[in-house]
Each structure stands twice: as structure tokens, then as C-alpha cells.
Amino acid sequence: MHLTRFTDNALRCLTYLALHPGQTETVGTIARRMALSEDHLVKVVQRLAHLGYVETMRGRGGGVRLIVEPKQINVGAVVRQTEENFRLVECFDEHTNTCPIAPSCGLAPALDEALKAFLEVLDRYTLEDFTRSPRRLVKLLIA
Length: 143
Prior knowledge:
The protein has 143 residues and is mainly alpha-helical.
């Protein structure tokens, strides 16, 4: 399983904001400290705002801040909401599938089971679980 850069950036952004509770941070600061593309992060933040995880403010003193408690942010849900698709192999998409053995192949059900297991593991974690050592993590972010 390979997560898109979009999902990775969303998780990094949420983690950064969880480490700075109640603070409004600029996208530029988050991008710089988390080694992300600022242009790409703008799109990620827009999506996170649409999903209700963050609030954005324009103008002087503006930026982004977390509006959901980290313990309420389920990692599996974030991954499901930010990934474009979960087609691990071509045959998962009936419109583009050209595999001649797809109708009776056993690989697709096994991969589907593995994907479900992957997401079930992520469902057991919240953002709070990833930020249990805030001092140690924040030290790594000092630029």
C-alpha cells in the first residue's frame, strides 16, 4: 500500500497543528518546518478545512489552526477522506480492467482483505496517539 503525497501531507499538517494547540500557524511555516511544498500544502489545508478538521483565517495574523481535538481525529478516517482511490491493482477498477483472468483470479480478494486490514489498523489510532511526546517532536521542528 502506498499513500499519496496528499494524504502524507495531510497527516503531517494535522500532526504539526496538534503539536501547537490553539495556535494559528501560517501555511508557509508548516510547510517549512515539515519539509512540504507550500503550494501543495495550500490544497491540503483547503481539503482539511472542508472536512472540518481545521479553520483557516485570511489576512494579517491569519493562517490555519486545528479545531478538532487530536483524540477525536481518527487516522483511518483521515486516510479514507484524503486518498483519491484504493485501487491497489488494475482489476479493482471495472472500467479500466484489462486482466483476462480477473473474473476467477484469487489475487484481488486477497488484496482487498489486506487493504481492509490496513485500514482497520489505522482505525485504532487517533492523532493524539502520534503526538504523545510533544516536546521531543517540537524540538525536531525548530528551524
